[in-house]
Design goal:
single chain, 312 residues, mainly alpha, 0% strand, flat
Length: 312
């Protein structure tokens, strides 16, 4: 058998086609890489367009959902003052919002007052201003911490509850049955819950403010043996009536937000039990987010109209 010869000459193609030289094969490889690069660039452009189309669809979905929510709010203002007036159900919802939240907000207020007093004492003593602790505590609790924390706690409890309750009625077609029986479920389910939140949120906020100040006094009495008359006089010496009124009544706006968002998500839910759970979760998240945004807007407006505490 004749040994194979090693040579640099191009070997003939098995199919009879003329053999390609090394330079030709190199040029073909470069053309293949260039074509592959073009294909990659096209796919990147296609991916970019897909991302843009996805972002556009998300924006349209957000605007559609926002429009539906504003339409729901307009429907509420259109119907809440019309018959039938569900006073009995309104009282039941006020009991649900107020009485059954009493223990939760009371513990929250007591913890706020004690912890705020304990943490602020050392900082104020460092600057020789420990005597102003009651005043600082009153301003913090009445103007911001009490209203916002109370509203956020109630948003977690009531937002999920309202959305889950109404949503379960929606997916089981109980609301459709009420509409078929001409019972006006919007008045019975939505109007009563929203009004209950609007009415009870300021009352629960006042309760939290009082309990928080009581907790601050207990901590001050145990730490420095401060008399309660001195504590009250120092606490309210720099407070104005408008500060207490505006910052307490703004929780009615927070209550309206919690009620309308939870009722909207429950009233418009589609699907089954999984969607009801998602609606309850979204009610808590959106209510808390809208409360914080509304707080910024209300505080800015109140400062513009009534001025700051230092302004007299």
């Amino acid at each position: 058998m004749e040994p194979s010869r090693l040579t640099d000459e191009p070997r003939p193609d098995p199919e009879g086609r003329p053999a390609r030289s090394f330079a030709e094969r190199n040029r073909a490889a470069r053309r293949a890489r260039a074509n592959e690069k073009i294909l990659r660039e096209k796919s990147f452009a296609e991916r970019t367009m897909e991302r843009l189309r996805h972002s556009q669809s998300v924006l349209y979905a957000f605007l559609d959902e926002a429009g539906a929510m504003f339409s729901f709010v307009g429907r509420f203002f259109q119907r809440f003052w019309r018959r039938p007036f569900e006073f009995k159900e309104l009282l039941n919802q006020m009991d649900e919002v107020g009485s059954k939240s009493f223990l939760l907000v009371s513990v929250c207020g007591l913890a706020i007052g004690i912890v705020l007093a304990m943490q602020s004492r050392g900082t104020l003593a460092r600057f020789g201003a420990e005597a102003f602790l009651p005043s600082m505590l009153a301003l913090s609790v009445f103007k911001e911490i009490g209203p916002v924390i109370t509203s956020l706690v109630l948003a977690g409890r009531l937002g999920a509850g309202f959305a889950a309750e109404i949503g379960s009625m929606k997916v089981t077609e109980q609301i459709d049955a009420m509409e078929a029986a001409a019972l006006k479920p919007f008045h019975y389910l939505v109007v009563t819950r929203v009004l209950a939140c609007v009415i009870m949120f300021p009352l629960l906020t006042i309760l939290v403010d009082i309990i928080a100040m009581s907790g601050g006094f207990m901590e001050s009495n145990l730490a420095t043996n401060m008399d309660w008359r001195v504590f009250i006089d120092t606490a309210f010496s720099s407070m104005r009536f408008v500060d207490v009124t505006v910052d307490t009544l703004k929780t009615s706006i927070f209550g309206f937000i919690v009620g309308i968002v939870a009722c909207y998500l429950g009233y418009t839910v589609r699907g089954g039990t999984r969607e009801v759970g998602q609606a309850a979760m979204q009610a808590v998240v959106l209510s808390s987010l809208f409360i914080l945004i509304a707080d910024v807007i209300v505080v800015r407006i109140s400062l513009f109209i009534f001025g700051d505490v230092s302004g007299g």
